[in-house]
Write a structure and sequence with these properties.
Layout lengths: L2 E3 L11 H10 L5 H22 L5 E2 L7 H8 L16 H9 L9 E3 L6 E3 L14 H13 L4 E5 L1 H6 L9 H22 L3 E5 L9 H17 L4 E5 L8 H5 L5 E5 L4 H11 L6 E7 L9 H12 L7 E5 L18 H4 L5 H16 L6 H15 L7 H11 L9 H12 L16 H11 L5 H22 L4 E2 L10 H4 L2 E5 L6 E4 L2 E3 L3 E8 L5 H9 L5 E6 L1 H6 L2 E2 L5 H21 L4 E5 L11 H19 L7 E6 L4 H10 L4 E4 L5 H10 L5 E4 L12 H11 L8 E2 L11 H27 L1
Parallel strand pairs: 1-10, 2-5, 5-6, 6-7, 7-8, 8-9, 9-10, 11-16, 15-17, 16-18, 18-19, 19-20, 20-21, 21-22
Antiparallel strand pairs: 3-4, 12-15, 13-14
Length: 764
């Protein structure tokens, strides 16, 4: 009989109960026992919902107190020495210290989970001795069975993925680390087998990336060991986000099931099965419902896919499942009351995707009999949206057609622009600035809420925003920053703010997803053709500039980041959407310049996360991503300085493309991995202005002057001092007032120390 399965469910809850519980505990409003109790109730509610919807294989151990990679590291006692861990069960103080930092210890690095906007905590293996501290999958299985009578499917991050995504060891140490971890995994699996667990899902998303021959041998060792150690346990080896590499080797592993993504990896996975077949002794998990998108699935099309697979793999050995965990989508469309009905009817969030899975499973079991009309009715909403005027604007489509045939570029090369900008601005060596935002205090959020509700007039709200700008312009001058920002107090989010002012966007009331830890974001929905409606940021930036003699940067979010941090329409390709955004933002850049703003930052922190996982597709993506950025920024004068900001990435992978963006100054989020990025510059050159973030804004601790001085001096060993800027590693929106001011004072003090040394060295 055909079964349905979900690879994971959103942690945050329909009303962000999870986020609120975490933050209440961190602020001391909940004692630990209450904290555990409240999280358990949230967790059980999620399981109840999946059971009520009719899902057959319900994932357990997908719930986390922060992040699943952090959970895995804690389960294996992989705790950096700086947290003074003494062994045994990992205290919450240590667990959250690794995630958020403590007064005395820096947090572990945080980076993107493959090409998604979810961030995981990077395990640090250096100097630790792994040991099993708790069998978390077993605890989750027992809880579901004892409390709800659910025969859960425990989920575990696989050994190869865990190792590949960890740091603190050399490539030559991979096998020795595998030797240390394998016995711990075996112990977990044996205990699950003894408990009577039927299926366990071992996530190995690393298998959709390029694998070496050594990796394949490691896979064979891992899963051969598992099969020998727990022979009666059914393992579903799960891949997602793309098609599986080394397909023949993977399906030859001694596991009972293989899960493949038939949404983002449809072409590759389908071709592999057609050409190479699928083993007769295995179950195929068919990831047919998109775990990352928010649109209703075309169920007739999905059923046809399943039926074609059933000709290659017996239908009783197919499991209908999500393409990946539903962690990446909001919880439910049910509470959205303000969306246009034409759009709302075309949406499917996590709960609606559960219904899609069950409906498809029933249709496949009946071979479509008696259910085709129901699927046809379901599909009509998506068809209606595709025919709407919002998706067929001729003015936008003509402009994008022109951009797609052009090669956008500035009037002069960087060397000439740099000289003109130096003469215009007369900035000191090592100019200091920030990335853009300042603390969004409770007062700021309350004022915005009152204005949105209509309780404050536009005039009162504008006056309040100007008061905040005045306060922070004076503070920046007092602190000693060289290039100022207005603070972005009028903005809810760096993407949502712009989406609200552009055509083609829609916004949910409760469409929250987890970005990292308790940080949740509400991505806009790009549902139609994107178009400029009028200036979006000019008023506040122009006002801020009128309050100071120092330069104030205009702050925009770039086309690729807006796209990658939104839920985008799926009826046209992403390149086309990027050019629509670029054309709209170009008009905003030109409006800023005309208003007298001649430093403009167009942030692109999300370029890397949109990079395709397949190497053969990356150059094409980078080519049009760079083109979109240049299209948005190329029409300004030489003396107008274009800045951009990017989150940390493996810089050497993209250095050519980043240079091709042709920004005058780039700032990079790097404080948690400063050494790795500087090493990239030892191997590669970068010839334009650059600022490496000198302190971590994701941690509440105030960095010391000596720390930042050391970071700056190390960077100057490999970067041109005349092109070097000093800044925090990201925006300061989430930080408190006092810590922000103290941190910036220390940053400026560190800059003064380094400047003095540089001047003295130059004189000598």
């Amino acid at each position: 009989m055909v079964k349905s399965s979900v690879l994971g469910y959103p942690r945050i809850g329909a009303n962000r109960e999870w986020k609120k519980t975490l933050e209440a505990f961190w602020s001391g409003k909940l004692i630990e026992s209450e904290f555990h109790s409240q999280l358990q109730e949230i967790r059980l509610n999620h399981l109840r919902k999946q059971r009520e919807k009719g899902i057959d294989f319900i994932a357990v151990n997908d719930f986390s107190y922060y992040d699943h990679m952090l959970d895995t590291a804690a389960m294996f006692g992989i705790i950096p020495k700086r947290f003074s861990y003494q062994g045994g069960a990992v205290p919450l103080s240590v667990y959250y210290g690794m995630a958020r930092g403590t007064k005395d210890s820096a947090a572990c690095e945080m980076t993107k989970w493959f090409n998604t906007n979810y961030h995981y905590i990077v395990p640090e293996l250096d100097g630790v001795s792994p040991a099993l501290t708790e069998n978390k999958p077993l605890s989750a299985y027992r809880e579901a069975k004892e409390k709800l009578g659910i025969e859960g499917k425990p989920v575990i991050v696989g050994p190869l993925t865990f190792l590949k995504l960890s740091k603190g060891y050399s490539v030559s140490e991979t096998d020795s680390w595998l030797d240390r971890l394998l016995p711990l995994y075996v112990e977990i699996l044996r205990e699950l087998e003894r408990e009577g667990v039927q299926w366990v899902q071992i996530d190995e998303p690393i298998l959709v990336t390029k694998l070496s021959e050594a990796d394949v041998q490691r896979l064979k060792l891992i899963y051969g060991t598992f099969a020998a150690s727990a022979p009666n346990l059914n393992i579903m080896l799960q891949t997602y986000f793309e098609s599986a590499e080394r397909y023949s080797d993977i399906v030859g592993l001694p596991v009972k099931g293989i899960g493949l993504d038939f949404v983002h990896g449809f072409s590759g996975n389908m071709s592999s099965i057609k050409e190479l077949g699928f083993p007769a002794d295995k179950v195929l998990g068919v990831g047919v419902i998109d775990g990352r998108g928010i649109w209703k699935a075309p169920l007739r099309e999905k059923l046809a896919l399943l039926q074609s697979l059933a000709k290659l793999v017996p239908v009783e050995r197919l499991v209908v499942q999500s393409s990946c965990s539903l962690l990446h989508v909001p919880v439910t469309v049910q509470h959205e009351t303000t969306l246009k009905s034409e759009l709302k009817e075309a949406l499917a969030f996590a709960d609606e995707k559960l219904e899609e899975l069950v409906l498809l499973t029933k249709a496949l079991a009946k071979d479509g009999g008696g259910i085709i009309s129901e699927l046809e009715q379901y599909d009509r909403a998506g068809q209606a949206l595709n025919l709407s005027a919002d998706r067929n604007r001729e003015d936008v489509q003509h402009a994008v057609a022109a951009i797609s045939t052009q090669h956008p570029e500035r009037n002069s090369p960087f060397s000439e622009r740099h000289k003109a900008q130096q003469e215009k601005w007369r900035l000191p060596i090592f100019p200091t600035t920030t990335i853009g935002s300042f603390p969004q205090t409770a007062e700021v959020r309350r004022a915005r809420q009152l204005w949105r509700k209509g309780e404050w007039s536009d005039e009162r709200y504008t006056s309040f925003i100007r008061e905040q700008i005045d306060l922070w312009i004076k503070l920046q001058e007092e602190i000693g920053l060289d290039v100022l920002v207005h603070g972005e107090f009028e903005r809810t989010d760096m993407v949502e703010f712009f989406g609200e002012k552009l055509a083609g966007f829609a916004f949910t009331q409760n469409g929250w997803v987890q970005s990292y830890g308790s940080r949740c974001v509400k991505p806009p929905i790009i549902f139609g053709d994107v178009a400029f409606k009028g200036p979006m940021t000019v008023e506040e930036t122009k006002y801020a500039q009128s309050q100071t003699e120092r330069p104030v940067k205009g702050m925009l979010t770039g086309p690729i980041t807006i796209m990658n941090w939104s839920f985008v329409r799926d009826d046209i390709d992403r390149e086309h959407i990027a050019y629509q955004l670029a054309y709209a933002l170009r008009q905003e850049v030109e409006a800023m310049e005309q208003a007298g703003i001649h430093m403009i930052q167009v942030d692109e922190p999300a370029v890397r996360e949109g990079l395709p996982l397949k190497e053969e597709e990356q150059s094409k993506y980078l080519k049009w991503a760079v083109k979109a950025f240049r299209a948005a920024t190329c029409t300004v004068q030489d003396t107008t300085q274009i800045h951009t900001h990017m989150c940390y990435c493996e810089f050497h992978d993209m250095i050519d493309s980043i240079e091709e963006m042709d920004a005058d100054v780039i700032s990079i989020e790097t404080s948690r991995s400063h050494g790795e990025l500087i090493h990239s510059f030892e191997l590669n050159t970068y010839s334009k202005g650059i600022g490496l973030g000198v302190y971590d804004i994701h941690s509440p601790r105030v960095p010391q002057v000596e720390e930042m001085t050391s970071m700056i001096e190390r960077a100057l060993r490999v970067l041109d001092p005349k092109l070097f800027w000093i800044n925090p590693d990201c925006g300061l929106k989430t930080r408190g007032f006092d810590e922000t001011v103290s941190s910036l004072r220390n940053m400026v003090e560190a800059t003064k120390i380094v400047r003095a040394k540089y001047v003295q060295h130059s004189l000598n």
